[in-house]
Amino acid sequence: MKHASVIIPTYNRSVFLKKTLEQVLRQSYPSFEVIVIDQTDRHPPDVTAFLTSNRTRIRYVRTETASGTRAKNLGMNIARGEVILCLDDDVDISCDFISKHMRNYETECVSGVAGRIISSGSRGRREPRRCGEVTWYGHVISNFYATRRRSVSHGGGGNLSFLRKQALRCGGFDERFAGSQLREETDFCLRYLKSGDGGMVFEPEAVVFHHAAPFGGCRVTDQAADPLTYANEMYFWLKHLDGRLTPYFVLNLFVRFFVLRGRFGALGFWWTMPRKLMALARGIRMGIGLYRNSRGTARRNG
Questions:
Q1: Under a CB-based contact definition with an 8 Å cutoff, are residues 36 and 51 in contact?
Q2: DSSP secondary structure of the chain
């Protein structure tokens, strides 16, 4: 039986964190540890008391740097489990949740598991035709509310498990992804699968209900006005896809954030368009800079 390490990064979501931890501690799987990487400024007294009273059951690490990717890497480095299970701090899970992940590792052809993620917005949706894919032209398909088991190339970072040794071998999560850290888990999964022999499966029975707290974590109020959103997208594209298609990708970003999002994009509130176009231009430059910096670091280390 493999030992599991459940890693929960948290930032300013005290009430949600306490409820999530209570459910994790009630898991039926017999061999697991819980690692909380806490970046919260200050907890209410009841949450502080809860964390203190469970210090024998929770490996608690306090860090001042607010970064989800850094927190997950820190958790992986100190983990004792053969399997890492990354979980968000604002989810509900059933008592056999860990078991549903771990049963997939009984076969050697599986090296990663993407769990099902549902929310109030995904209820009632039809079964998606595609799930957990990245197309050759850069379209990242998630649809992790699906109900059918299948092979996937990436999973949602708040319900994702993988082998610790292989994750460390591929370099862990890329801490250059910042802000909302959009695409950081997709980037990790693509690199992770290239570094090993097994594949990744989507396990619909390992389900979380994601509350999508409007505060804390790496939540961004308006992605279309945040340069880091475009920087993350551009950086991901240059790392994994055909650089010759970069003009197409820039156009794709404009269409996605300025046209298809309706009132949430720049065209919905036309007076915000100049500011968001500036964010787009700045983000693209930042993404190119991140990529060049990563290449330079790789050459120096290689």
A1: yes
A2: ---EEEEEEESS-HHHHHHHHHHHHT---SSEEEEEEE--S---HHHHHHHHHTTTTEEEEE-S---HHHHHHHHHHH---SEEEEE-SSEEE-TTHHHHHHGGGGSTTEEEEEEEEE-TTTTTPPPPS--SEE-TTS-EE--TT--S-EEES---TTEEEEEHHHHHHTTSS-TT--TT-TTHHHHHHHHHHHTSS-EEEEEEEEEEEE---SSSTT--S-GGG-HHHHHHHHHHHHHHS-GGGHHHHHHHHHHIIIIITGGGSTTTSGGGHHHHHHHHHHHHHHHHHHHHHHHHHHHHH-
For residue range 209-257, list pLDDT tens digits in order. Answer: 999 877 777 766 677 788 999 999 999 999 998 888 888 888 888 888 7
Report which of 78, 101, 98 is spatially closest to residue 155, judged by C-alpha positions.
101
Question: Is-above-0.90 flag for pTM?
Answer: yes
Distances, alpha carbon 247 to alpha carbons 2, 27, 102, 106, 237, in Å? 46, 48, 42, 44, 11
